[in-house]
Amino acid sequence: MNILLVGLGGALGSMARFGIGRAIGKKAKTALPVGTFVINITGAFLLGIVMAYSFSARWYLLLAEGFLGAYTTFSTFMFEGFSLIENHEKLNALLYIVLSICIGIFGFWAGMRMVAG
């Protein structure tokens, strides 16, 4: 049963990432990979919310391990950051990487604080 919960959450999370990332990417007029940035920041925020609630193990598997595990994407983040460096956009790469990490940590904290009060 656990693997089905993770699989269902993962399928939904990856579809959400694909749709939201594409929609943001089409509207963004910048060299920065804004779609992945927004996905990872909102994912960190949502994970903070999930972790602040004392969900049952099944809900945790569905939401945190499944949905948010597939929704956020560290590998794409690394690829896009490295691509910026390869394309000689070192300042954009630095901004993208540093802001993603710092705002991601803040987003997780903010999600937890929002629930915990």
Description:
Helices cover 85% and strands 0% of the residues. By secondary structure, it is mainly α. Helix 1 (2-27) packs antiparallel against helix 2 (34-52) and helix 2 runs parallel beside helix 5 (90-116). The longest helix is centred in the last third of the chain and has 27 residues, at 90-116. The chain starts with a helix and ends with a helix. The mean pLDDT is 94.
List key phrases describing it.
117 residues, mainly alpha
Short description:
It is built from 5 helices and no strands.
Radius of gyration: 15 Å
* Apparent shape: globular
Beta-strand share of residues? under 5%
Give the tally of β-strands. 0
- The rounded distance between the terminal residues' Cα atoms is 33 Å
Count the DSSP helices: 5
The sequence of SSEs as H and E is HHHHH
Overall mean pLDDT: 94
Oligomeric state of this protein: single chain
Low-confidence stretches: none
Largest sheet geometry: none
Please specify the SSE layout and strand pairing.
Elements: H1 2-27, H2 34-52, H3 57-71, H4 74-86, H5 90-116
